[in-house]
From TrEMBL, chains A, C:
Keywords, comma-separated and alphabetical: Transferase
Record-given protein name: 3-oxoacid CoA-transferase subunit A
Source organism of the structure: Belnapia mucosa
Highest taxon in the source lineage: Bacteria
Database matches in InterPro entries: 3-oxoacid_CoA-transf_A, CoA_trans_fam_I, NagB/RpiA_transferase-like
UniProtKB/TrEMBL annotation, chains B, D:
Listed SMART domains: CoA_trans
The organism's place on the tree of life at top rank: Bacteria
Record SUPFAM superfamilies: NagB/RpiA/CoA transferase-like (SSF100950)
UniProt record similarity statement: Belongs to the 3-oxoacid CoA-transferase subunit B family.
Keyword line: Transferase
Protein name: 3-oxoacid CoA-transferase subunit B
PROSITE patterns documented for this protein: COA_TRANSF_2
């Protein structure tokens, strides 16, 4: 059995300037408790790798509003006008990555692969400055793997060995980010005894998870 | 029937039985309301579900079950959920039969721009670049013009979404098929003449002898 | 509801000389009924992409013994002396691929990726004739994607829309092969009504599966 | 205690608490029997399970739960199963703390050959190339000699498994650590002298002043 930590302890582990992967899709499947604790401790200069910056007041949107984020590597900011405003004002640097490429770059970072060869982005702004590799006569864009100092996850169930499950569309980037960071911190809706989650239902083996937040009371 | 409903109804006529279809955020989402009766279409949402259904009644939503815009959805019997890597493996890998997306511009070569207006509006491409690159058929559902300017242009002035030529463009005025030879006018919206379409279109159109009216399916 | 087919009908669809992906790991998770039907119809000249060739009398081992296989793209043949003998005799051509590279090549084929950049195989016979690509100062071997005419799968449960689940170590190559072939044929231990498998438990969405074998009686 | 058991016992002394370990087919599999008491080690099998346990009693096996050699195994509480892509994402991605593999040869540079003897024996590499490339520690557990010939050689005559220098070689005679300077003799098997080891080893060894005996742990 492993010991869980508080959200404040989790936030204290994450230094200013850290590079974070944060799961979630318009905040669905995002770790709101860890995010709140980062806002509470006034984190600064974070780089956030995520699908999007959610909405004002929600998920990563809270980090943007509170001025915690210096740089965002995301597939869109269309749902968050605050991010768009801060980007145009030069307060937040935004790197836009096609969503499928983002998923594969994260996966490559976690799987020890040297990069991603994708047709997506060829002939667009995304291809600028990148290598094009031909395989069997077809061109592909070479996209580099992504890794982070921390991955912040949101699970449905966790057991006390930190095995995790995810629910429906709250799954999204959680399972792939779990492999792509030096330190993985998860929060879960429920904590269950070891053995309750069948092996086939475990989506992230507990050995990949460094810290789990205490259950909510 | 307003213009958006008409475009969505016409796009719904492109649906085929037992296919996997992704609908973009905004206008394309409306297409799901007009699935022709008897067709079994599985809608994918790129945030990780296939076989999603209509928004549940008030109070019966699940915060873990949303579409790519974050709106609540339901799940049809036989639905499947998966992570983002699998979702885009389906999209990029050619497993998606069709996608319906909005557009800012389509040009004479059939290229689409729909993800940014430099210096003004930079929402980002989200899944659009993968969808246009990977889906077997790409249908653009959009207004013919924005602020009085034709969105169908000789050459994109906005950054392209992909190199690929889209398969069909459905607007409030016309249905246009990009071909290797140029943009082919396929159908007119009800009550719109070929001359009106040509006048409203900045790009050259190939006009066949007969241009029928858009089929819009039965009514609800 | 979709109609299932017999094993013989499945085997009849697969022409001599076809390129097959066959799931399974030393025959665990292999579609034995489809394999038996291929042996029964004396299929010839098949290319088999699989983890291994199992053992004599088991799984792909039956295809090898029956002379159905001209070429095998596998990670090992150590469990099957018949394959080793036929390889040395020139009756079966064997291409050996590191197991992790095989998995990624299959996945890339199914995911529309142009190839795999892996450190595995660098400085070994596997690297011969292949391109080495540097990404962020590190070398990786470029391995091409794999696709097949048919993927033959073994599921635990199937519903009548052909959604599939897999069990424990019988999972192995099944989920990734399901995306990497033009025609996907599955057999299942159980067939259940649509809606019985929860969305989070479906490992292969039914729309990827072209044919399902009738349930066993 | 036979040679294989001794090698397995010594290899088990390398296990650390709360680590993820892959054991190769054959001799390395024996290591699981000698986990030092109090350690929680999760064994991965590359066919897709983490946290597997001992073979169940006769008649209680599950045909869907086997190790990489096809032998029946059990599952510990908290075990997780996954597909081959995930299994090798764990291996290649550096998530595996340690692997114990058999060997045909290790050379003075610490390189391993363990997957083929050209023209004679071509079992294939299976997961070995990925394991040697990706695991944080690579331990080779093997007999010191085969058919009277040292398996520890100045330079591999067999095709290498990977470029990477392995971390430790455990044989029935010695424990040897490949270092940037060469092969360092770390321990002698009980009753074996340094001179005997040097005589039985084709590659040059670096001999420290003190070479202790192998620790073999307590009993079962």
């Amino acid at each position: 059995m492993r010991k869980s930590i508080s959200a404040a302890e989790a936030a204290a582990m994450i230094p200013d300037g850290a590079r974070l992967m944060i799961a979630g899709f318009v905040a669905v499947g995002s770790p709101e408790r860890i995010i709140d604790a980062l806002v509470a401790r006034s984190a600064r200069g974070l780089t956030v790798i995520a699908n999007d910056t959610a909405r004002p007041g929600l998920g990563i949107g809270k980090l943007i509003e509170a001025g915690c984020v210096a740089r965002a590597i995301v597939s869109h900011i269309g749902t968050n006008p605050v991010t768009q405003r801060k980007m145009l004002a030069g307060e937040v640097e935004v790197e836009l990555v096609p969503q499928g490429t983002l998923a594969e770059r994260v996966r490559a970072g976690g799987a020890g692969l040297g990069g991603v060869l994708t047709p997506t982005g060829l002939g667009t702004l995304v291809a600028e400055g990148k290598q094009v590799i031909e395989v069997e006569g077809r061109p592909y864009l070479l996209e580099a793997p992504l890794r982070a100092d921390f991955a912040l996850l949101h699970a449905q169930e966790a057991d006390h060995e930190f095995n995790l499950t995810y629910r429906l569309t709250a799954t999204n980037f959680n399972p792939i980010m779990a492999l792509a960071a030096d330190c993985v911190i998860a929060e879960a809706m429920e904590t269950v005894p070891v053995g309750v989650i069948p092996p086939d239902a475990v989506r992230t083996p507990g050995l990949l998870v460094d810290h789990l937040l205490e259950r909510m009371h | 029937m307003d213009a958006k409903e008409m475009i969505a109804r016409r796009a719904a006529q492109e649906l085929r039985d037992r296919t996997l279809v992704n609908l973009g955020i905004g206008l394309p989402t409306l297409v799901a309301r007009f699935v022709p009766p008897g067709l079994h279409v599985a809608f994918q949402s790129e945030n990780g579900i296939l076989g999603f259904g209509a928004r549940p009644p008030e109070g019966m939503e699940d915060p873990n079950l949303t579409d790519a815009g974050g709106g609540f959805i339901g799940a049809e019997p036989g639905a499947a959920s998966f992570d983002s890597a699998m979702s885009f493996a389906l999209i990029r890998g050619g497993h998606l039969d069709m996608t319906v997306l909005g557009g800012l511009q389509v040009d004479a070569a059939g290229r689409l721009a729909n993800w940014m207006v430099p210096g003004q509006l930079v929402p980002g491409m989200g899944g659009a670049m993968d969808l246009v690159t990977g889906a077997r058929r790409v249908i653009i559902a959009m207004q013919h013009a924005a602020r009085g300017e034709s969105k169908i242009v000789p050459r994109l002035s906005l950054p392209p979404t992909a190199e690929r030529r889209v398969d069909l463009v459905i607007t409030d005025l016309a249905v246009i098929e990009p071909t290797p030879d140029g943009l082919l006018l396929r159908e007119c919206a009800p009550g719109i003449s070929v001359a009106e379409i040509v006048a409203a279109t900045a790009a050259p159109l190939i006009i066949p002898d007969v241009v029928p009216d858009m089929p819009l399916g039965g009514g609800r």
